Amino acid sequence: MPLTKTNTNHAIRGRAIPNSGQQNDCKAVIAQITFADLGRGAGTLHTVGVARVDMQGRTAAGDANIQVQMGGGTVAAAMIFNSVQQTTDAANQRGAANGTISVLNQSMDSGTVWNLTGTLP
């Protein structure tokens, strides 16, 4: 099953709205995400300027809660389902990382939480 990007239409709690310079930092830090980041534990994954990508932790099902933060506010939030994280093929791992980057950018634009679901070979 291919990857599916879904807008949950749930507003981000504590949302921070970046100005244009901050938005550039947010886009740059999102672009640094790799497949290996999806398997990391809670904590900061990357930082650029005023923006950082944090792994908030995992659900009971193993889904990764990844957020872009600025100060004390959340700019973007996405749930990356455990099934997405299970691929061992290098090309599909790049696809999973690119899908994560995409949903975080869409979350930043919409102000809502996004999900990345699906199963890759």
From TrEMBL:
It comes from the Bacteria. This is Uncharacterized protein. It comes from Rhizobium laguerreae.
